[in-house]
Amino acid sequence: xxxxxxxxxxxxxxxxxxxxxxxxxxxxxxxxxxxxxxxxxxxxxxxxxxxxxxxxxxxxxxxxxxxxxxxxxxxxxxxxxxxxxxxxxxxxxxxxxxxxxxxxxxxxxxxxxxxxxxxxxxxxxxxxxxxxxxxxxxxxxxxxxxxxxxxxxxxxxxxxxxxxxxxxxxxxxxxxxxxxxxxxxxxxxxxxxxxxxxxxxxxxxxxxxxxxxxxxxxxxxxxxxxxxxxxxxxxxxxxxxxxxxxxxxxxxxxxxxxxxxxxxxxxxxxxxxxxxxxxxxxxxxxxxxxxxxxxxxxxxxxxxxxxxxxxxxxxxxxxxxxxxxxxxxxxxxxxxxxxxxxxxxxxxxxxxxxxxxxxxxxxxxxxxxxxxxxxxxxxxxxxxxxxxxxxxxxxxxxxxxxxxxxxxxxxxxxxxxxxxxxxxxxxx
Length: 428
Prior knowledge:
mainly alpha, two-stranded antiparallel ribbon, 16 helices, about 65% helix
């Protein structure tokens, strides 16, 4: 173990130095040999590490969402080349390269945090073995061995023997009760973090094997923490419980303020955003403007929640701009229909005719026809006389046509002018 610690001294020495610096601060408040001084030093180490890892966490969120977006394309590749694993892998790598996505990006915070976890484990294990490590000298070693958290020494484990625990100034019952409670809390925090990610911050419109894998990990990770936790010293359990609680709070903040598009969390966020925007008449803060800007840029590709948000602004007399601002809309605004096609909201709608009753439909055409016949009756020649118009002598207008228009009536009936040629008898 000393050889391994010596090889990785480049990381164990800085970790031990940070713990000692925090211990000097908390030791002046709570006492140098108390569990509060050493326990808070470990908690502060976690907070410092997680603050430094925030940029990687942001990159992890973007990578996870990019992977969720690629799930339909990945599923098509798997179905197309299900019998050719090599071609399937080549197409997957090509897809990652074209979209600029790296599957390992979602694991960056865990990979970056693992060296600090490894270093802390060796520091606490050296304290339990009564060995100096890094900048922890004999005086600090004695102080750390006296430190207890709720009766359990920092360097004690759940699997330690009774004699070893007594050498650290405690009892086996206190150690196992404290470690069991911390393992349960550690596993529960990991389970809750993964569960809120799956139930609230996952696009419900896409059903892929990736979601099934995430659901499986939701139950596998807590079991892994419970199994490995019995071999961790109390100080390492404090470290891991603190980092799980930090991750849970960080995840809750991201889900509340920057949810995944198409998820239940986005629907809740857009409802809150709609209330705030309609109340103040504008977007406030860089985060709200970024969300509105992304929704406007999608155009017809908006999901149902985003389309409902835009239509809600339009009904309230507001309009979302391309830069993320919300202004008062003009008389003619654009409203999106359910299928995403734009429609003019300010234009008057076409009035539908009123539906007539059965009696009105039956009597309406008859009355109108009779009325039309009455109006046209004085204009016809037959209403005055039953005789043909040819029998009435009268002056003819120029062109040889009768005044009554008889020639036109003959032409319309299909008769030819002049003498008719007799039909030849058919030959039998």
